[in-house]
Amino acid sequence: MKKTLNILLLAVLMLTVTATPAFAQDGRQRTTQTIVQDALALMPLQTQADFNREMEDLAKAAPQSVEILAGMLQPTEKATNNLLEYAINGVTNYASANAKYKQAVLDGLRAAAPKAPDQYVRQFLQSQIRLLAGDEKPIEFVQHAGAAPYAQAYDNLKALGPNAGPAIVKTLKSKDRALRMQALKFATANGLVTDELAGKAVGMYKKQTEEGKADIICWLGDNKVESQKPFLHKVLAQGGQPAVAAIEALGKIGGEDAATALIAQLGGDNQQEAFSALLSFRGDLSGQVTEALKVTTGQQQNRLLSLASLRRIKSAAPVVFDLAKDNPAARKALSGVVGKEDINKVAGLLDAAAGEEMSDYQKALSASIKSLDAKEQYQAVSAEMKKAANKERFYPILASTNTNESVEELQKIGSQAAIKALLRSTNLKAAAPLLNAAKTGDNNALNGYINLMGNYQKNADARYDGLNTAMQLARSDEQKRVILSFLGSTPTRNAFLLAGKYLDDKNLGYDAAVAEKNIINKTTEDIEYEVVKENLTKAMALYKAHGTADDGYAVDELKKIISELKPSPVYELSDEEKAQGFELLFDGTNLDNFVGNKVGYVPINGCINVTANYGNESNLYTKKEYRDFIFRFEFCFLRPGVNNGVGIRTPMGVDAAYEGMCECQILDHDAPMYAGLREYQVHGSVYGVIPAKRIKHKPRVEPGRDPCSGQPHHRNRER
Amino acid sequence: MALNRRTFLKRTAAASALFSILPREVMGKMGGANNFVAPSDQLTRGIIGVGGIGRSSHHFASDQSCRLVALCDVDQKHLDSAVAAAKKNFNETVKAYHDFRELIHDPNVDIVHIATPPHWHGLMSVEAANAGKDIFCEKPMTRTIGEGKRVEEAVKRNARVFRLNTWFRFKDTFYGLGTDVKPLKKLVDSGLLGWPLKVRISGATGFTWKFYWVGKENLEVQPIPKELDYDLWLGPAPYKPYNIHRTHQTFRGYFDYDGGGLADMGQHYIDPVQYILGKDDTFPVKVEIDAPQQHPDAVGIWRTITYTYEDGCQIILEGEGFESEGKVPYIEGPKGKVYKGFECTIPNVQELINEMPDPEPRNTDFLECVRNRRQFALNESNGHHSATIVNMGVCALRLNRTLHFDPKTQLFIGDEAANLLVNQPMRGEWGKMI
Predict the structure, then answer these.
(1) Inter-axis angle of helices A460-473 and A493-500, nearest 10
(2) Residue A487 belongs to what domain range?
(3) Binary contact (B354, A136; C-beta < 8 A)
(4) Residues near A400 by Cβ (< 8 Å), separated by ≥ 6?
(5) Intervals of chain A under pLDDT 50
(6) Of B13, B130, B426, the CB nearest to A144
(7) Is B279 left (phi over 0), alpha (psi -120 to 50) or beta?
(8) Looking at the DSSP assignment, which residues form a beta bridge with residue A620?
(9) pTM exceeding 0.80
(10) Which residues in chain B land under pLDDT 70?
(11) Which residues of chain A neighbour B55 with C-beta distances below 8 Å?
(12) What is the set of domains in chain B, with CATH numbers?
């Protein structure tokens, strides 16, 4: 196949040779014709090296080379121009990246465009010119034939424009439903539906099949044709498929008469359609529904009850309360019609309820307090609860007020029912009792705890602590999966380390990988280079194995992050420092020269990091003891209000400032929390002994900014 | 003319009228999976493009109400694997096509499901409409405004039923917003927020613009894999040197086929907004851009794209730099704001919403629409409108300047370069098809 094509091109080429005066020669003594011919023989090119070589040759020989190539483009009817287009596209792209060839290639394209053998070839050349110059004329498009008879009918209607009415009515005679629907839709889309047109369409109604009749009626509804309402009422009375359509249409058109007619349908065969129409009915239904509730029975009344509930028809509340005594549908409807004035009544019913009535009244009580603020809700429910004989029935509603008081009250009660009710609370105070219950094996309490902590947005460290605790208690993969997903939105080092432990789990590996990717993208904390590299490499493999479209991008993204990771720097003493007798305490990688709290103090990427979130608060000490010394170090604050110090000549395990020789204060004393400092407490003081001259710290390094330059950065990686 | 399935269906229409006096519920139940459906009542479907969404479990399906009968792909590996899966999953021996035109003109296919990259959507939709087929097209509807206009026209001219496949305007919580459209529509229709409104589609309101769907500049040239008909994969797009990154999955990063997260996800996010604002039959008149200059081939990132309607309503897309949290309203009006999760500055809003009527019902069952020739809830017309919003943004992004749009002519005002992007040339013979 390819061979034949090349031969064909060569044949065309021979013809062109005589026509184009292109005998300039290149370094290899080739004419432009030969350069073009050599390049075409290799299309489409398979490697970058081939591409660069051939495009360089073609671009160097522009504009003639481009003119020759373009001149070979055949009328689209006759042949396919693929390889020529490839070559021209290639040289255009090449020139757009190599400015020195741009003008020559452009000249070639411009010279060729007017000679294009047809519109499509011209369009192609214009698109190439645009790529290089961006100033070519818009392109005309042709309208093509469609499927008869629809295209013809449509074109006719379009030609008639505002006068298409009679043609539309005439089309309704057709037996072809698609054709009739096309005409009706045309009228709708072009604003042609007048009372007159609607009347004429209705005039065609009798001759239609059931389907055709329904189509006309739906159309009247879509266009809200008020003038045909009497007709629609008539159709509704006659029943059948058109009646179903009439219900829909009357619902859309609206009006009191329509509401009455639809309500009357609620007990009949088309009650479902009438019910939907009433749900979206524009206008006030409260009077009609309330009155109808009093006089209807059975299914019709039950439908009305649902309607009153879903549309919040408050005026129906007295009737609904009345009916609730014997009708379960009315009990269920209560939650939609009650308000704060009904709290007392509903609470009484709840206390006295039996069996399945209870949950209906609980829902109603929840609904009745909705318009109050949280505190008022608590007070109202708590007061009703005090009066009630069956107090536990009020627990869930009490909990759902989410107030501190409600949690405290339920915690004090402490029964199983009270703890279960706490699952409804979004108040963080519910965490402790839920956790206690979870520790005794209550699985629902654990789920509640996980949700509560995972959704705690105020403090990522507290969220992590909760999730970490939950992870230790979690039994099922499903629980662990939820925890991993919450860890993914907890952008801290601790969360990264915890989620990382599940990368090798055969059921949870992918979930852990997703969490790791989310954390590394959002975190501003330093995390050890080695850990990041190892975990992300595992995560990448898990994404790859998962294999959906987005996973492919995740693999690319992780690959990029990993390639940009920078190993921890390793420090050495300068020659000068060596000569002065300095010892290196910290080379950036390990705490081998230290003893004490190596949980709280962690070497990460060339710094010793300490945060209260890493665990205990005891001190880090040099392993060796020193007599007289100079201690050199640098520090930075990653959060406001950091407080630490360098203790000198101190025994271990005691407070260096009081029991050691002294502590040199390191303090972010500019933080507002330290407004009342004594002078001997400021940064640099020998704490409590010698005040330091107060300095103003440089602006604190914000999370995500480089401690040296203050530029935004991602820890461990360059952007 | 040979008696094909379609004409057969038409000729037997008189007989099936017998059923039409049955109540609708009964008809509905007849289409259920456990009931027998007469072959003449069954619809049939062919999928073009089975490498991505076309193979997703939701779409790669076949049942009694709509049988999968044909598949098409220009990657032989994708095609072979899909044909085998059809046999294994549904025991269907489907026709396998390399050229989509053959699938479209297969008389056994009623519905053409277009699941290719976007640079094909316009061409294939027009071809299918002209061939008298109903169409189920994946988002985005088209890659250019001009193509969309032609699809709308072709579907109407040929009296076809067209469904654009995004669904948030009628069901499901969309992305991180934490609510479905219904309460938002009711709230906006109620007038409680006032008018005009500003809608923010932003990282902070729960949407991601997927800036990892960006292209690579200066791709190296690679050999074309044997199983891929690269020429037919490109179709109307320029014949550029092959690199794997241009094709399967990562095609989204190139303007020739798509336009990054903006073009590929935009319609999912913007279409519901068009519905909420009640703008299904008009277009914004202005689009403003804040972005670095884009490469002509590889899609890059952007910061904001702001659309303004004639009445002052705005849709603001917030991209790079807006991913972080922070309290940003999704919809903002002179009288109130609504945030993620339907949190609202209007007290007791949920109750107020509950008291209001539901939005007008729409036809959301595509097969039902095909049978009854009804317009689907998201169709050639409102679909073209929301696709145009997306494509206006792509034009502004590529040109990096404010553009003014004329809703009547669907062209930009006083900007020839922008109008070149409205109607883009197609390679070779493909230009003849649209």
Answers:
(1) 20
(2) 472-564
(3) no
(4) A366, A424, A425
(5) 1-23, 703-719
(6) B130
(7) alpha
(8) A596
(9) no
(10) 1-40, 323-326
(11) none
(12) 5-165 (3.40.50.720), 175-214+253-363+377-432 (3.30.360.10)
